[in-house]
Amino acid sequence: MIPFSVLDLVPIREGGTLAQAYAASAKLAGAAEAAGYRRFWVAEHHAMEGIGGAATAVVLAHIGNATSTIRIGSGGIMLPNHNPFVIAEQFGTLEALFPGRIDLGLGRAPGADGRIAQAFRKDLRQASEYFPQDVVELRALITGEPKLPLAATPGLGADIELWMLGSSLFGAQLAAQLGMPYAFASHFAPDHLDAALAVYRRDFRASAALDKPYVMPAMTVICAESDDEAELLASSQLQSFVRLRTGSPGKLPPPVAGYRASLPGASQAMLANIGQASAIGSPETVRSAIEAFTERTGADEIIVSGSTFDPDARIRSLQLTAEAFAG
To answer: Which range of residues forms the domain containing residue 130?
Structure first.
């Protein structure tokens, strides 16, 4: 079976603290490592009460110290928010601390609403237009090709695996042009998945880092002993999706029995759309859904997302998912 990886949003639970969220993510990363997952990524989001990964490089240092072999990285760094030179320094530092284990996934979205532009004192619309040039500059700062007037120290020569993230055709086209591996955010934006993968594979140009296309779509995966238990656990994540899409995000809520059926039709339709890239249920149910999704996408790797109110339930979900494909 293809490799599995983990995407973590560092969820902050209702009644919980940031410190507890960081401790839970470190414990989750250790469990993922023990279960054989390939990488553990943290996503950059800002000014969101229920997500603790804003200072992504700092969180990754915490994760790195809690693990020893699993690759760790960003899923992703929203590059328009940052200066490429600073990101090269940050991830060069991480690679020096955790050699051979660092991924740098890059995205174009700001990671929050327009108020972030004001807080960052940046024109994010203009910065997004320069995203392709910034990606090329960042890669040059790390690889030394082409040589730039100023070297990033740390950064230059670091063994960092660069990824392109996306949820539309733009990221697919850029990843193909630059010969980068491509991760698609199908766990929350599945509509353009098939078209984006087709464009990426059709237009891919080999690079020094990658000789053929490599795709890693994301899935929401919640696995438990039974379908009913998994649906109950997943209701925390489903509530978060609905609250985010209706403009009222917050901390991760406790599970609610029968939540999906209690929703109005529009919200049920939204969850059904997102469910194109989800696997919620017993090990047998999850295995079947992941296999069907892999066959549909031709994925080289799957990255699994999905938060549970009880952190230990997420750990058990990862373990059950891995066991479902063992052998």
So the answer is: 4-217+314-324
